[in-house]
């Protein structure tokens, strides 16, 4: 295990030396120009010089991850989609061994100790997985259920829950949404009532990604009757405790390979020391945790959009209608150019938000803008690209139809578009005063 992680660090260093030599000879610039003049349709290979936030180390990290995706994940995606589940423990162990479940987490707890821009790089690379469900499940483990624990949790909690999650030995899930409360997180009903040294938990969670396979949940529950933004706590909840019941696995429009559960809690007893950070701060911690979740989601969808546009260019370039390739019709290649332009604009916004975030700035507004735009743009990309595939786009045989189904979630999950608009308006000071 240590060998794999050491090997990754070594690879990062080697790449860094090789690429900086290339770059110092002016190779990065010339290479790009040559490619453009030779072929106007293929993209130049990605280099650190092209990028605002990525160094050679980021690119080396992505390259190592790509090998795992190609060898261990993509060959099985169709089967997992058909089965409605992927083997989270097996895949997380592979990713954990290689260090990809905690790139920005402390070395003390098995992480690589890098900054959040490396998580963004990992999220972008995971967009090469040929479905949305598996990367989403990985993101829940690495960047949605664990940031608050890493930042505010006690050493004991980090030993028990963070370390094994980063190593891929435990599967995590995030329990925020409920049957009666999704967009309005402050109105959740699940209660954790203090009895001696324990909380007794009653209620339930809805839409829990990884929920049927998870070993523990980062649970948001009401721990007092105080005001709704100050009465909540995040609690590390082992899923094998008496009273935790997986009520059902939910059938969905998309994200088939990701299991989504409804979970009930009936007098579940958990030690009070399992609370993350300060009791009553759960709402605030969760709002902070959402920032990383949202940036991660945008990074992940960018690559998926790139890939769908590229596959559409390939397909429409060889499929003829009215004696010429579909792609040659101006409405088609202009539309694809417009969409690619918007993808690049979104990428710039993401990188700007990430660069500010790793310097310690509050990027709530930019992260919300990126999430809003990501959700809306992915719907446009999916709809336009599917159209150009004609009847083929309506079959289950092609990636574009899976992308159409899977990517629809981005405008809903992790805060719907309207919730993002509300946050942006708050920062613009345009919300009507109550
Ligand atoms: C596949 C999947 C996986 C998920 N995984 C997880 C998970 O792991 N953990 C977790 O906690 N949750 C998870 N969720 C839940 C997800 O975050 C919620 O679905 C989302 O927050 C929306 O909540 P809701 O479904 O209750 O919609 P509601 O809150 O009922 O909202 C319905 C709609 O109302 C509209 N709306 C909302 N606010 C406003 C407003 N201010 N003005 C106007 N219109 C508005 C929006 O269009 C919204 O879609 C998942 C959901 C899905 C579908």
List keywords for this structure.
434 residues, alpha+beta, Butyryl-Coa Dehydrogenase, subunit A, domain 1, Butyryl-CoA Dehydrogenase, subunit A, domain 2, Butyryl-CoA Dehydrogenase, subunit A, domain 3, 3 domains, three-stranded mixed β-sheet, 14 helices, 13% strand, globular, binds flavin-adenine dinucleotide, Probable acyl-CoA dehydrogenase 6, fatty acid metabolism, oxidoreductase
Your description of this structure?
Belongs to the acyl-CoA dehydrogenase family. The protein folds into three domains: 2-170, Orthogonal Bundle (Butyryl-Coa Dehydrogenase, subunit A, domain 1), CATH 1.10.540.10; 173-280, Butyryl-CoA Dehydrogenase, subunit A, domain 2, CATH 2.40.110; 283-428, Butyryl-CoA Dehydrogenase, subunit A, domain 3. The radius of gyration is 22 Å and the shape is globular. The chain has 434 residues and is an alpha+beta fold. The chain has a four-stranded antiparallel beta sheet with strand order 2-3-7-6, covered by helices on one side. Helix 10 (282-318) packs parallel to helix 12. Strand 8 (320-321) and strand 9 form a beta hairpin. 52% of the residues lie in helices and 13% in strands. The chain has helices at residues 2-24, 27-38, 56-73, 77-83, 88-98, 116-126, 133-144, 147-152, 155-167, 282-318, 330-358, 364-388, 399-406, 417-428, and strands spanning 172-175, 191-195, 198-209, 216-222, 232-238, 244-249, 260-271, 320-321, 324-325. Flavin-adenine dinucleotide (FAD) binds at residues 140, 173-177, 182-183, 207-209, 252, 255, 260, 409, 412-416, 418-419, 422.
